Automatic annotation (TrEMBL):
Monomer. Interacts with DnaB. Its EC number is 2.7.7.101. It comes from Cupriavidus campinensis. The gene is dnaG. A zinc finger (CHC2-type) spans 37-61. This is DNA primase.
Amino acid sequence: MIPQSFIQDLLNRVDIVDVVGKYVQLKKGGANFMGLCPFHNEKSPSFTVSPTKQFYHCFGCGAHGSAIGFLMEYSGQSYPDAVRELAQSVGVTVPEERDRLPPAQRAEQQAKSVALSDAMTRATEFYRKQLRGAPQAIQYLKGRGLTGEIAANFGLGYAPDDWQGLEAVFGSYRDDNVAAPLVEGGLLIESSDKRDADGKPRRYDRFRDRIMFPIRNTKGNVIGFGGRVMGQGEPKYLNSPETPLFSKGTELYGLFEARHAIRENGYVLVVEGYMDVVALAQLGFANAVATLGTACTTVHVQKLLRQTDAVVFSFDGDSAGRRAARRALEACLPHVADNKTIRFLFLPAEHDPDSYVREEGTDAFARQVQTAMPLSRFLLQVVTEEQDLRQPEGRARAQYEAKPLLQSMPAGGLRLQIVRELADATGTTPAEIEAVCGLGSDSSRVGRFAQPRPRARRQAPTGLEQRVIQLLMSYPSLASRLDADTRALLLDSTRPEAEVLAHLVEACDGLQGAVNFAAFSEHLAQTPYAEVYAGARTAVLKEEIEEEPATMEFDGAIHKLLAEPLQRELEVLQKAVSAGGASEADKTRMVWLVAEVQRRRQLGLRPATTDGA
């Protein structure tokens, strides 16, 4: 866990204009900066960055957030990764509970990481230069239909047929200081049994006579390579080994290059090979990525769903493709949601995506993508296709196969629909499927057909309270204007609609020192009332209100809110008087209430003084 206090301090240190300005061309426009939104296509700028609020907001697509949120949205980074990148940019270290390394050891690790990154960058440039002087490699790429522009976009290169090719860049492999980062980064292989005359282990290039595909992380840094043979030879693809920078189970080839096309097309296409990704980009499908010679993992799925709400997996139609699709299905299930779409495309066995597009055309492939099999249908097909559903044994086996898949899914509308269809297919009821599959045993997995738990009704803030929330989010110091008596009336726990307001006032009171809007918003986003605060935040971003008029409006709104419970009491007493059931004390109280309600309403309309209500 990263302490919330650190997040607030970090967002006070960074300038969101600088962070966003690295990726978006911004121009000053009044108090804010304007630019074309990187999250949707637009011709006139509706994307604003506020240096005062330290927040970005697009009036076109509604995207908004802090510097942390921007990095997550733009690069597809996780929350901790975005925090680490921001921290590194201002020279601070993220304090984490698991970080128990002594400062000297931590500094040593950071130095190694820098050396590895530098080695990858220099190797990339070496391979790219080698490609220019390798006619056989150029001819191979042209034969695959690639242009120089697309090869440059993906940074393609060529590893010469040389056992010590990288020595031209880094120096002698016999120098341990030279060889260490190259071995650790997977660029060199160090022999364990063969040694030179002076006793040093033999070191030689891992990649030789191969087309080189640099693998970038979400920040665009090269972290590994894939090398492909140009003719016959095994393995056809040779990947970097696992290194401190590179893990096949967490990275996707082409994700950095595809991020803009994914947003423009509204989905990401997951294919099986590097060449498929590059060739599809050449043919108009620049939103393709590939796993790195390994099965799709849950981390892969998480990364993809940070980029888009729609994922299409493309597999060969043979048995190997079906097995790969089954593994991808299992990786997807923990992350399915009712607002996400995951589909599976099975091409004819004789085709991969590249060959299919070239033979059938882009429109035909686009239709294949549009009609790809939904996850729900594929799941039901997987658990029923080899079973004889006419027999009790076959129906029971289908339920048995479905149990672990359904259990790995979060409770929600999609799982309910799958349960219903499985029930129809196996001649049972949805409730029986949930019982057989154990979907109602955990309170977090209670389904539609299990007995629902009673829930306390949480009432949304009224329009006036919503405005007070907006003003407090803009200027948390306004909470200090509420005295004890006002708080007792305003935040009365018997009023369910005051629940959020009471939480916000407490959050304002707990702030230490100056905290900007972005830092405060990040804090509120981690609370149980995040959804309410998100709506209020959008309203705050659409206006620019100075502190003095905000204070006057806040004081007036508070007086009006305090008049509301008195007005309700007055209405009850007025009905009692009309019915002839009021005592003298009730009548006296009613007279006071009329005057007090009128007084508070007038205070709510009157400009407030600067010394409080």
